[in-house]
Write a structure and sequence with these properties.
Helix content is 0%, strand content 35%. By secondary structure, it is mainly beta.
C-alpha cells in the first residue's frame, strides 16, 4: 500500500525469472524475499530515485543524453544485457521529426541474447530513412549474478561491436 512520504515499498517479484536492481546490477536473491510464497520484498524508494528492477534476459539500450530528438546521431549505444535467460529486443529508429515512419521509412535491428553460449546476435538491418547512420557501435555490458555492474550512462565497461547493417554475433 502507498502512504504519504513513503520511503520504502513492498514489491512483488514474479517467479517466472530472476530479477536485477537496475541501478546496482545486483540480482535479487531468494533469501532476501520477505515471504518466499508471496515473493514480496521491501525496497528503498528515496525521493530522488524510483526503484526499478530488470528481469533476466532483458536487453536495454541506452543512447546519448539529448535535449531534443534530432540533436545528434546515436552512433554509440550502450546495450545492457541481463544474464539468466535468453532474451530478445528490436531496435527501432526513425527521423524523429516527421511522419515518414508512416510511409515505412524506418530501420529495425533484431538483437538476441543466448544465455547458454553467452552470445549476442544482431540481425541484418531492415528498412531505412534518408540520412540514417549506416554504421554504429554497440557497447555490450553483460550483467551476471557473479559480476554485477552498476548502471553507468557515461562510460560503462563492456565489449565494443562495430555494426554496419550486416548480421554479426559476439561472444561475451
Amino acid at each position: 500500500s502507498c502512504y504519504y512520504k513513503a520511503r520504502n515499498r513492498s514489491i512483488y517479484f514474479p517467479k517466472a525469472c530472476g530479477w536485477y536492481d537496475l541501478y546496482t546490477g545486483e540480482q535479487i536473491m531468494e533469501k532476501e524475499l520477505v515471504n518466499s510464497s508471496t515473493r514480496q520484498l521491501i525496497v528503498n524508494a528515496p525521493y530522488e530515485r524510483i526503484p526499478v528492477f530488470v528481469r533476466e534476459g532483458a536487453i536495454i539500450p541506452f543512447g546519448p543524453a539529448m535535449r531534443w530528438s534530432d540533436e545528434k546521431p546515436a552512433n554509440l549505444i550502450n546495450l545492457y544485457v541481463y544474464a539468466g535467460q535468453n532474451g530478445e529486443f528490436q531496435l527501432y529508429e526513425d527521423e524523429g521529426t516527421n511522419y515518414n515512419y508512416e510511409r515505412g521509412q524506418y530501420p529495425t535491428i533484431d538483437i538476441t541474447y543466448n544465455d547458454a553460449s553467452r552470445t549476442v546476435s544482431f540481425s541484418q538491418r531492415r528498412g531505412s530513412f534518408p540520412g540514417m547512420l549506416k554504421q554504429r557501435r554497440f557497447n555490450i555490458v553483460l550483467i551476471t549474478p557473479d559480476a554485477p555492474k552498476p548502471l553507468n550512462l557515461d562510460n560503462p565497461e563492456g565489449k565494443m561491436v562495430d555494426y554496419n547493417g550486416k548480421p554479426v554475433t559476439v561472444t561475451l
